[in-house]
Design goal:
- The protein is an alpha+beta fold and about 210 residues long.
- It is about 30% helix and about 30% strand.
- Strands 1, 2, 3, 4, 5, 6, 7, 8, 9 and 10 form a 10-stranded antiparallel beta sheet that branches.
- Helix 5 crosses helix 6.
- The two termini are about 25 Å apart.
- The chain binds flavin mononucleotide.
- Flavin mononucleotide binds next to strand 2, strand 4 and helix 3.
- Keywords: Flavoprotein, FMN, Oxidoreductase, Pyridoxine biosynthesis.
- Homodimer.
- It is an enzyme of class 1 (oxidoreductase).
Length: about 210
């Protein structure tokens, strides 16, 4: 135990969250919190931890960026051949966690995962800045590579190949959608008596309960 870490303690004193007044639709509740996070000048309010697991249940977790949110679910983009991509092909379920420290809020989402349509991936790839498109196309994400110079060389070769700046979306790059089966909204409160509101269910039939902090 580190004494320095043990001493760290924050008492949350901001807002509250009540199962009687939350929105009956968790998508609307998330929209409200996301809008507040977006309006609060946070760094990367759309960053979320994404947990996946192999077929055998070995977990892994990393940050990704939320790029789409609607009644179908939460969309992020990545390389389909990456470690997460391979795990999602084997075991198409995931958990997401948002943490907005300044708002003393956490949101957890779980659910099955599907690929977005090729059209949706094309549309998002097309609006990425040219250098981000090049970077995505050049990087065999999660593979061992000989060094940074090798990657730079791949970018330069691709740049030369597509001198018109029109970099096509690689087949193994695109979006995934996490389709929520549960949402948990966590609001920090005084003396560790935090509010936790859990929604489970689907579409029009969500059940709402309070969990002990
Ligand atoms: C704030 C932040 C946002 C990130 N966003 C993405 C993203 O949207 N897509 C992505 O593929 N990787 C993103 N990354 C990199 C991933 O965390 C990870 O390193 C990469 O996707 C490889 O993960 P994997 O080997 O588990 O597949 C982000 C990293 C950080 C720190």
């Amino acid at each position: 135990m580190s004494a320095e870490l043990a001493r760290l303690r924050v008492d949350y004193a901001g807002q509250d969250l009540d199962e009687r007044t939350v929105h009956p639709d968790p998508f609307q509740q998330f929209r409200t919190w996301l809008d507040q996070a977006l309006a609060s000048n946070l760094k990367e309010p759309n960053a979320m931890a994404l947990a996946t697991a192999t077929r055998e249940g070995v977990p892994s977790c990393r940050m990704v960026l939320l790029k789409g949110f609607d009644p179908r679910g939460f969309v992020f983009f990545t390389n389909y051949s990456s470690s997460k991509g391979l795990e999602l092909e084997q075991n198409p379920r995931a958990a997401l966690t948002f943490y907005w420290a300044e708002l003393e809020r956490q949101v957890r989402v779980t659910g099955p995962v599907e690929r977005v349509s090729a059209r949706e991936s094309d549309d998002y790839f097309a609006v990425r800045p040219p250098l981000a498109r090049l970077g995505a196309a050049a990087s065999p994400q999660s593979q061992v590579i000989p060094g940074r110079a090798w990657l730079k060389q791949r970018v330069e070769s691709l740049q030369a190949l597509h001198s018109d700046g029109d970099i096509p979306r690689p087949d193994d790059w695109g979006g995934y959608r996490v389709c929520p089966a549960s949402f948990e909204f966590w609001q920090g409160r005084r003396n560790r008596l935090h509010d936790r509101i859990l929604y489970t269910g689907e579409a029009t039939a969500w059940s709402i309960v309070r969990l002990s902090p």
